[in-house]
What does this fold into?
Amino acid sequence: MSEDTANTGTILVVDDTPTNLEVLFDFLNNAGFKVLFAEDGESALEKAHYAAPDLILLDILMPGMDGFETCRRLKGSQSTAAIPVIFLTALTDTPEKVKGFALGAVDFITKPLQYEEVLARVKTHLRLQALTQQLQDQNARLEREVQERTQAEAALRQQNQRSQLLAGVSLKIRQSLQINDILQTSVTEVKAILQADRVLIYRLWPDGTGSGVAEAVQPGLPEVMGVVFPQEVFPPESREQYRQGRVRMLADANRDQQVAACLVDFLRQFWVQAKLVVPIITQGDLWGLLIAHQCSAPRHWTTFESELLQQLANQMAIALTQAQLLEQEVLQRQELARSNDELQKFAYVASHDLQEPLRMVTSYLQLLERRYKGQLDADADDFIQFAVDGALRMRTLINDLLTYSRVGTQGRAFEPTSSTQAVERAIANLKVAIEESEATVTYHGLPQVQADPTQLTQLFQNLISNGIKFRSEAPARVAIEASQKEDVWLFSVQDNGIGIDPQYADQIFVIFQRLNNRIAYPGTGIGLAVCKKIVERHGGKIWVQSKPNQGSTFYFTIPAGGMS
Amino acid sequence: MVKSVIESLNPIEILLVEDNPGDIRLTQEVLKEGQICNHLNVVDDGEKAIAFLTHTAPYSHAPNPHLVLLDLNLPRRSGLEVLETIKTNETLKHIPVIVFTSSHAEEDIMSAYNLHANCYITKPIDLEHFTRSIKSIEDFWLSMVELPSE
It folds into this structure.
């Protein structure tokens, strides 16, 4: 930067001696400064005020207002106080200089003037002045930045506070799965946050009426709960506005001209002076309203408060939707359990009550046979025989059905049960069949499990007798084993019988499903269905692996730690 | 005075409390085939049974039964109520009551014995067993045991 270009700025020269002024004017002007001049204190103050020079050269000895006084006034006025003042003086004694500095001067230049000195001092002070100005600007900027940052921080704090409030309340609301808990938690929390006198959840019912369903209210104020509001309170257009998310703020019920007459009555009845209302919208429908009341005084609701209330209403809507879904699911599950239970009872009662008429059919057919056999013709004897057979077979079916339904209805509690003992009891029950068919039943390493002992015995008994019944030419061999696989016991019952075509592997567990002809393999087809039901009641699975003529292995599992 | 009922010349009076006509007839038929001279009185509900036993109209002239065959599933007053009435009545409680029913239910069996039923028999489903049951009742209750006479 060259020397000349630095010489910018306005300098006010104040001197009562015209010659002095002239020379100084020319000199400074030539040096590149803009020069103003004044010949006395009064006009100096005036010019300093409107021209706002960068520097003032001020003569001390002037008629009228002298330099000291002029300086005092310059420093005393806000618009000129910051302008540096250099005294021009012939006085050289120190007390005078001290007085000048005390008045706010920055320097002295002694007369007669050495123009180079004047230039150097003027430059120095202008630079100082520029630096000072720069510093002041910087300070001002910093101050502004600090202020802005403080404001931003305050906004952030408020936002944080809202997030925290919201998170806290949301958590509390969502932790409750019961609709009533959600509502009560919401009103209590909202009342505390807003410091409102009453917070109410108003439910709009499908028939157009409405009523308070949860309320938190300052002691001593009337309760809105229990009051049912007729349909007229919420005409469809008002409902529609709320459904679209309208928020209603009322700061002072006594001054607001737009409040409808009926509402005024309501507000008076419940001492409401100010209110804030936001809609609760679930799945696109207006579920109800979240309302805050101020009863002690009018209240101007802030944006912060109305936004907070809206966000809370949204959280409530989510929680309510979830709770409704949960309630539906629970109801469905209860309904399913009930209908299952009913079906079980039905099967039990049906099979039980069917016994009676069947007994009549069987008994009287047999009485006919006993009394009149041989007295009618051969056909009649045959017919009676078929009828008796049919009735007896029906009796077996009914008994089987009864057994099947009893697995569910008459089962006993699970207890630690030795599966070895269950197998031994099953073998004892099958003693005759085992001896007659010369079958061998082996078992080893069977565990203790949580089971209904009677049903476990029945399970083994059905599987063993199955193995014996469906034997091939060779004597039946049935082997029972068990091993632990992760959290279940895996049992296997293997035989060397006729086997099952894999395509029927699932069918055989269906009640009354038979694969083989009735004469060679009598039975109703209940055994494996009962097995499946017993295993499932114990929380396990049953399946078969088999090939025709290569024997079958039935597998079933029982949870190792008992059924959870 | 105690003597075996079989020595008595008068027929054995049996009260059958049963609402199923099929069972009534079947019991009659099977008893007919038996050896013992008996007279089967039949009522078809619990209230009539109590009236019969307490000689209440229209049963003022009813005989005192030596044995009661009692179904449990009855209209108006249940078999268990009839049983309780008999077993808590000083003049009736000596009469043997045989519960003869189609119910296998454990709680029915327990309740019957708790009310002092003399025995509990489930009606067998086919005639052979039914006959055997009635015969057993005859053999045991009407010939083997001694019952108090009037």
Observations:
- The radius of gyration of chain B is 14 Å.
- Residues 13 and 63 of chain B are 7 Å apart (CA to CA).
- The interface with chain A takes residues 20, 22-23, 26, 29, 102, 123, 125-128, 130 of chain B (CB under 8 Å).
